[in-house]
Amino acid sequence: MQAPDPRDHGKCEHFQPADLTVLAEQYLREADIPETEWDGRRFHWGGVIESPPFKGIVMQCKRKDGNWVLTKLDRRKDGITPDEEGFRPL
Question: Going by C-beta distance under 8 Å and a sequence separation of 6 or more, which residues neighbour residue 61?
Fold first, then answer.
């Protein structure tokens, strides 16, 4: 039996932690940063969601020992601030 792909959302269309890692890896590759230097790198993503009672979400991840680790998952009932929106390295 083959393990499911963690990036397969099934029926869920919301932004997922795996989506953040895809953005992080894309950013690192486009910046020509070798994988050997990825450990310790941190990334942030925040966005508006429509998943009552939540109106916003903030996620952060970190590369540790060759794996991506979600370090923050904050669902917000009051939404997010403009400076929290979008993807960026930390």
Answer: 17, 20, 21, 24, 42, 43, 68, 69, 70, 71
* Dist. CA 60–CA 30, nearest whole Å: 20
Q: Where are the domains of the chain?
A: 39-90
pTM: 0.84
Q: What is the pLDDT of residues 22-80, one digit of tens each?
A: 999 999 999 999 999 999 999 999 999 888 899 999 999 999 999 999 999 999 999 99
- Can you read off the two tokens belonging to residue 56? 């916003």
Residue with tokens 């940063």: 33
